[in-house]
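Worked example 4.2. Below are the chains of a multi-component assembly; read each line carefully before continuing.
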Amino acid sequence: MASLTLDKVRKAFGPVEVLKEINLAIEDGEFLVLVGPSGCGKSTLLNLIAGLESSTDGEIRIGDRVINDVHPKDRNIAMVFQSYALYPNMTVRKNITFGLEIRGVSAQERDKAVADVAKLLQIEPLLDRKPSQLSGGQRQRVAMGRALVRDPDIFLFDEPLSNLDAKLRVDMRTEIKKLHQRLGSTIVYVTHDQIEAMTLASRIAVMKDGILQQFDTPQNIYERPNNMFVAGFIGSPSMNFINATLIDNNGKLAVSIERDGSPITLPLFEAPESYKAYVGKKVVFGIRPEGLTHKRTGSDEPGSQYVNFDSKVEVIEPTGADTMTVIEIAGKEIVARVRPDRAPTPGESMTFSADMSQISLFDPDTELRI
Amino acid sequence: MADLQTYSHDAGWKNTILRGLLYLVLILFAAYYLFPLIVMVSTSLKSLDEIREGSLISLPRVVTFDAWNYAWNEACVGVECTGIKVYFWNSVKMAIPAVLISTFLGAINGYALTKWRFKGANIVFALLLFGCFIPFQVVLLPMSQVLGKLGLASSTPGLVMVHVVYGLCFTTLFFRNYYVSIPDELVKAATIDGAGFFTIFWRIILPISTPIIVVSVIWQFTQIWNDFLFGASFASGENAPMTVALNNIVNTTTGVKQYNVDMAAALLTGLPTLLVYVLAGKYFVRGLTAGSVKG
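Applying the procedure described above to all two chains together yields the following structure tokens:
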């Protein structure tokens, strides 16, 4: 086990730059998730760490060792692939021990290692089967077994769950998390699924177009996204973005949202210093669906973090736990998360509470957080 | 409802007629192809007297394997009257190494071209493909010079080399197209497991290549066994392959024309390729279509 450092790592294929100066550092035992839409460079970054591709520039270190020019087999890493990449001609047992065999580990030790891993992953009855005789979930386990058996410094996962059906994906997600807690190993995990990223990571690196957008703990990324891309990408349903103006409302900052009829004025609960420069200017007001709810108790009291406003309801989408309520403000569809027993009927007008302690403001031009 | 019934009634008649026509055409084609074979087999089983008396298509009255025995053991090729068996073994000694070597090299080429893509891999592949379209006749003279310089002229090893070089284009094409459909992640996983170029090839890639190996072997064996031009040009006299010997037997101008021996010799020459198709034919079709549809 070891820490991992990426220092100004760049990767270009000819004139096309797919990774632009990536700086990342994780401690021993951390679970790093690289997340982003397809084509953002996250898989390339993983391949660079694995040594399957070489970086154009910059330094990659495992512990204190610079591994840029080290062959993949000598990096002491193990990788789980999206397609599992099990060797079709070998039994599960052979698949798991292949790496050990190549490294010249004795047959006795290999048997013991397989037994341990099989027990850990509960694949003992499968050991003498061929990969073609396994289900998707079982293949997934074998692929993890192949990585685990080597006891590497760092585990690399390349979208390991994306080929599984929804139910199994959730189960395996929990299992990977349990495994990480039990083994305390360092993991780098690539996914395009933000829920996987949030649930698994100790730290998330959000990427887009080869640029690292934000690198932080899941909660910080969720609550304080660096820019509108991160804000929109993390969280489901996505954060609502509303064009607004920051105004000085009798000595207190507020956002004012234009709409047919009367504008909505939402006084801010907190006003950091950085907001001052934007007074009187256009901003993008970002609020997550759970920040917009039915009218809360205590929202009428002075000093409350909740601000109430009325709006007509367009559509409702019950999910069971909550009812997603779509309202229209300033020509944009806004999603609010309402308790099912307080859910309105479409066409009705109702009072919503906006939780002003959980909002973000963005610069409409740079799309960066203010 | 009534309309529907009439409709299906009509279709039934139409179907029967069309099906009948289809079978008729197929039977005609089959007969067209089978007839020469039947004539050959029946002639080879007749005595020379019977051939002179009877008509071409009549079946043998007395079945005799004398002609086969004569062709195998005694027929004269040029001035040597050793039968065709010597040349049969010449062909075996030429075809087996040439098939194995060209298949093996094709497999390595295909593997390197798809899984270890180097700069210019596409150009190399394009050039190899180009080799498939070079007619035999074009290379006869330069090839004989090369063989002469290598000291391989008029020898079986020389012939093996010619066939390997010529077959390489085809076998590479086969294997390359097959390996394109094998996920790259397999090679990546093995690389991380610590396996190198040849370990991955031997332990992972080759064991899953059976269908395409069969295709390559059948193709190469048929090509090499049936080749006449290279055999006649680069291996003369006692080293000649069976096809050349067959020609020499059939085209002998002295003495009585022994049709039964000619037929038997021709059938003996064609038998090995036939056998390969019968044994591995179903893999051939399977291998040719493998990779064209993604599972």
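Take a moment to check your reading of the output against the notes. Chain A is about 25% helix and 35% strand. The domain at 241-362 of chain A is CATH 2.40.50.140 (OB fold (Dihydrolipoamide Acetyltransferase, E2P)).
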